[in-house]
Structure formats: C-alpha cells, structure tokens
Design goal:
Blueprint (H helix, E strand, L loop, with lengths): L5 E7 L3 H12 L6 E7 L5 H9 L4 E5 L6 H11 L4 E6 L3 E2 L3 H11 L5 E9 L7 H10 L8 E3 L3 H6 L8 E4 L16 H10 L5 E12 L5 H4 L3 H20 L7 H21 L3 H14 L3 H10 L3 H12 L2
Parallel strand pairs: 1-2, 1-4, 2-3, 6-9
Antiparallel strand pairs: 4-8, 5-9, 6-8, 7-9
Helix pairs in contact: 1-2, 9-10, 10-11, 10-12, 11-12
Length: about 325
Amino acid sequence: MSLPTVSVVVSAYERPAMLRASLQSLLAQTYGQMEILVQDDSPSDLCAEVVEDLADPRILYTHHQPSLGTLANLRAGYRKAKGTYVATLNDDDLYEPQYLETMVRGLEQHPECCLAFADHNIIDGEGRVHVGASDRNSAGFGRDRLEPGVIDSPLELALVRKSVPGMFAVFRRELMDWSDFPDEANSGYDFWLTYLAVRTRRPVFYSDQRLTSYRTHEGSQTASFTDPDKRLRSLAYDLFMHRRFFEDERLRPVQDSIRERLAAILVSTGNAHLQMGQRNPARKAFRQALALAPSRRARAGLALAALPASISKAVLRARAGV
C-alpha cells in the first residue's frame, strides 16, 4: 500500500543558514513521502545555493524575482501542491524528526479530521530551546490543557482561542479552497489556513508532543510587533480576517466571541492610531468598536481621541509604562 504524499511548502528569504537548518530538519523526517516546495522570495541566489548543495530530488525549487511578499510566495506554493496533505515550514523554523509521521498517522486513522497539529518549542536565533518560554506559549494558547486525540468542535479552539498554529499544522488538501486566499490576510496567512480548514466544521487531531520549533529572533514577525507602524499593519490584517469571520454563516456558533474579538481589535487599532497622532482614524475605530460591543476601553479611547494629540500620547505612554 502506497503512503500518502505530504506537500511541504517552505518559505525562504535571504537567510541561507537558517534555510539549511530548516531543510535538514525536513530531510531528517521519519516520514519520507514528501514533495518539498521551496518558495524563494530572495533578491539573491544564496538560498538557491543551499538547495543545490542539498541535492535532494524531492525538493522543487522556485525563485520569485521580483519578490512576491510572504503571503503570495506561500500561496503560490500551496496552489502547486499535489500531495494528499499540505504543511508549511518557514525558513527560520524546525521540525522534529517524528512530526510528519505523527501528523499523517493521526489523519489517516481519523479521515473525518480536516487537519492535525502539535504543540511546539520556542527557540532562539541559535536554535536553543527556551523551556520557560515554550511552557508559557503552550499555556497562553491553552494547548497545555488539551487532551491529545480528536477534537470534535474546533471552531472556538481554532478561531477564538487560537490554539491551532496554522504554521505547524498539516491540512487535508482536498478540503482547502485555495482560491479563497486574499492578499489582505497578509502575514496572518497561517491563521487564514486554519480558518479555511475549520470552517468545514470537521474535527481536528492534536498531539501534545512538541514536534516543531518556532524561532524568535530580530527578524521574526513576533519581534516586529513592538514597532508602532508594523503593529498597526498587523492589526489591519487581523481586522480584515475577523470581519470575514464575523460575516461567515458557517461560524455562527462562535459569532458572539468573534464579535467581541473584533471590537477588541478595533480598540487596539484606535490606540495605535493615537500613538501615531492619527486622531480621525482613531475616532472611527473606537466608534466601530462601540457599535459592535460597548466597552469601557472603547469609551476611554474615544475620550482620549478628543484630547490634544500631545496629551493622548502622554496618557498612552503612561499606560504602557514608558
């Protein structure tokens, strides 16, 4: 009996040393039935040299010039995928050797499941595991309290608690509508992947083993959120996605929770605009938040937006402890 193929889409951008480590973790998998779609968005040939050096026939390399951007680069790979299952590996992250085998086994044993996912480690730029950060991450997303196995009702788990890391999940390809992958999802592509799967209302499979590693470093997406302008851009795609979720009738069981989350994102958006001295868009965001789910934070934000910019900025800095 032939094994199902997993299409692993690997994003690459000008980090050849990290790409080599990521691909080596992939080639060391105990499950070998893969097609590896390396999507290189780099301006140089440094990543191409890594692929040539590894010389594995399962690697299908594409170099996009000019660069497409994170979402479009990955989306092109997903649309080329031919495997029964589809996974993602960013060039700064790693797989443990048993990851794909564990995920495929879960999906094969439970054909009703739309995806399989596992817990993951937090590693630094040198690849060292930070146990405390990993424990806090698992607890923060509620994965430490999940029972391994099949989870029958994943909507709240995936879309409200965000317990399913789309970048570390294996998806059943036939259930994914790759035509519904808008540019506005931007760097939230992994959350959008999860949405495409769980909106089918099918169960998911979970392993509580830490079978992947997420790398935090100066150039990682997580690190960029401390910059006010980048934070505002991240809120823009979060806002877009949650508006889509709120309008999706298939998500009706969690609509109230999504409404509250959408209002909270609007408040955060209003505060980010205030930090940048943009009072009119701040007022608009706070009013929209109040229309969805009235809260003290939204009212306070609207009051702040009525004050002179210098005062509102000072108040926000004081709140942040700056």
